[in-house]
Automatic annotation (TrEMBL):
Domain J: residue ranges: 6-71
ZnF CR-type: positions: 122-207
Bias (Gly residues) ranges: 385-397
InterPro entries: DnaJ, DnaJ_C, DnaJ_domain, DNJA1/2-like, HSP40/DnaJ_pept-bd, HSP_DnaJ_Cys-rich_dom, HSP_DnaJ_Cys-rich_dom_sf, J_dom_sf
Species the sequence originates in: Thecamonas trahens ATCC 50062
Pfam families, A to Z: DnaJ (PF00226), DnaJ_C (PF01556), DnaJ_CXXCXGXG (PF00684)
Protein name, as recorded: DnaJ protein
Keyword presence, Metal-binding: yes
HAMAP family tied to this protein: DnaJ
Any one GO MF annotation of this record: zinc ion binding
Domain annotation CR-type: ranges: 122-207
UniProt KW Ribonucleoprotein keyword: no
C-alpha cells in the first residue's frame, strides 16, 4: 500500500488511479466547492485550496512520482502552486507540521457503502484488510542477527539530495532528487545481511479481519475510526484506518436528515373516501396507514407519520418522522350521469360563468406529451418542421 496518500485522499482517488480519472475527480470537486457556488463559505474556500494544490501535483508525472516516493517533503524546492511554491501545501495539509520529521504513519481512508436499512438498525460488519506491519523475524530492523542498516553518508540519511538546475539566464531552480547511492532509502544494508523474509525492507504484508460498528442513525460522510490499524513503519506511531460512510440509495425511502420520505399512489376514490395500506419499515415492522374519517388527500400532498423516521444520531431512542407524498390518479372520462350525481354531492363551483355571449366556444382535446413541444420548437429552429408525425396527441371523442 502507498505510504503517502494525503493528496490522493483529498481528491477521493486511489494512488494507482490514472491521470484522466484523477482529472475527472478534480473537476467534480472543483465544481462543488468553487467560491462562486459557495460565497462567503470559508470552509469551502479552504477545501478548494486543498483540491487545487493536490491536482497541481498529481497532474504532473514528475511531481507525482516525487510525491509517491517521498511524500510532501520530497516536493520542497520543486516549484508549485502559488507564490509560495509548495510551502503552501505544507500549511494546507497539517498546519505546517509536515515540514518536520513525521511521528506517525499516514491514516488510511476508505469509503464504506452502507445500505439505508443498516443505518436505520445499526450493524456490525466484518472486513478483511491487508496492511504493512513490521517484519516479525527481524523485528523491523531489516537485517539478520540483529544487524541494522547504516545511515547513507552521501545524503546524510535524508534519502534525497539537493540539485541546482539552471532554467534560464540568471535563473536557477533548486530541486530535491532521490539519492542514487541508497536509492532514496536514506540508509544502506549489505545484501548478505538483509532479512530473507522482508529483503531488508523491514516490513511485511499482513491480512487480518476487522469489525466495523455502524451505529443506528449514522449519516453520509460520517467517519468510523479504527485506532492504530494503518500501515506500520519503524520508529513511528501507527496511524488510523478511517472509514467514511457512504449512504446507498434505497428503492422505497429517501432520507432527509432524520426524516424519511416515500411516495404513494391513490385512486381518486381513495383520495376522496378513505384508504388503508401497509408499509414495511426498514427494520421489517408492518405499519397500517389509514385515513382519518372524512380526510381528503389532495394531489402532491405530503403528510407525516410521527416518530417513524431515522433514529437520531447518538440518541437512537428518538426518531424523526416518516413523510408520505401522495399522487392521485384521476379517471380519463366520467359518464354524464355520474357527473350529474357529483354535482349534487360536491360543493358548488365558485368560478363565475362566462359573461360574454359572443365568446368562441372551444374544447380541450389535445394532450400534452412532455418533451415534444421542445422537440417541435427545435425542429422549427433548424428548418425541419412539418410533414412528420405531430408532437401532440388528440383525445378520442
Amino acid at each position: 500500500m502507498a505510504q503517502h496518500r494525503e493528496l490522493y485522499d483529498v481528491l477521493g482517488v486511489e494512488p494507482d488511479t490514472p491521470t484522466p480519472k484523477i482529472r475527472k475527480a478534480y473537476m467534480k470537486l472543483a465544481k462543488k466547492y468553487h467560491p462562486d457556488r459557495n460565497p462567503g463559505d470559508e470552509e469551502a474556500a479552504e477545501k478548494m485550496k486543498e483540491i487545487s494544490a493536490a491536482w497541481d501535483v498529481l497532474q504532473d508525472d514528475e511531481k507525482r512520482a516525487q510525491y509517491d516516493r517521498f511524500g510532501l517533503e520530497g516536493l520542497q524546492g520543486a516549484g508549485g502552486p502559488g507564490a509560495g511554491g509548495f510551502a503552501d501545501i505544507f500549511d494546507l495539509f497539517g498546519g505546517g507540521r509536515s515540514r518536520g520529521p513525521p511521528t506517525k504513519t499516514p491514516d488510511m481512508k476508505h469509503g464504506l457503502g452502507v445500505e439505508l436499512a443498516d443505518l436505520y438498525k445499526g450493524r456490525k460488519r466484518k472486513l478483511r484488510i491487508t496492511r504493512s506491519v513490521l517484519c516479525t523475524p527481524c523485528g523491523g530492523k531489516g537485517g539478520v542477527d540483529g544487524k541494522e542498516a547504516k545511515s547513507c553518508r552521501s545524503c546524510n540519511g535524508q534519502g534525497v539530495k539537493v540539485m541546482m538546475r539552471q532554467i534560464g539566464p540568471g535563473m536557477v531552480q533548486q530541486m530535491h532528487v532521490p539519492c542514487d547511492a541508497c536509492s532514496g532509502e536514506g540508509e544502506l544494508l549489505d545484501a548478505a545481511d538483509r532479512c530473507p523474509e522482508c529483503s531488508g525492507r523491514k516490513l511485511m504484508e499482513k491480512s487480518e479481519d476487522i469489525e466495523i460498528n455502524v451505529r443506528p442513525g449514522m449519516r453520509h460522510g460520517e467517519s468510523i475510526v479504527l485506532r492504530g490499524k494503518a500501515n506500520e513503519a519503524p520508529g513511528l506511531e501507527t496511524g488510523d484506518i478511517v472509514f467514511v460512510v457512504q449512504e446507498m440509495e434505497d428503492e422505497r425511502f429517501e432520507r432527509r436528515g432524520d426524516d424519511l420520505f416515500m411516495k404513494m399512489k391513490l385512486s381518486l376514490i381513495e383520495a376522496l373516501t378513505g384508504f388503508e395500506f401497509n408499509i414495511t419499515t426498514l427494520d421489517d415492522r408492518e405499519l397500517l396507514v389509514k385515513a382519518l374519517p372524512g380526510q381528503i388527500i389532495a394531489p402532491n400532498q405530503i403528510i407525516g407519520v410521527p416518530d417513524e423516521g431515522m433514529p437520531r444520531n447518538k440518541n437512537p431512542a428518538l426518531r424523526g418522522n416518516l413523510f408520505i407524498e401522495f399522487s392521485v390518479t384521476f379517471p380519463d372520462v366520467l359518464p354524464v350521469e355520474v357527473v350529474d350525481q357529483l354535482r349534487q354531492i360536491l360543493p358548488e363551483a365558485t368560478r363565475p360563468k362566462a359573461a360574454n355571449p359572443n365568446a368562441e366556444e372551444v374544447h380541450l382535446t389535445v394532450k400534452h406529451v412532455e418533451g415534444q413541444s421542445r422537440q417541435a420548437y427545435d425542429e422549427d429552429e433548424h428548418g425541419h418542421g412539418g410533414g412528420g408525425g405531430g408532437g401532440v396527441q388528440c383525445a378520442q371523442q
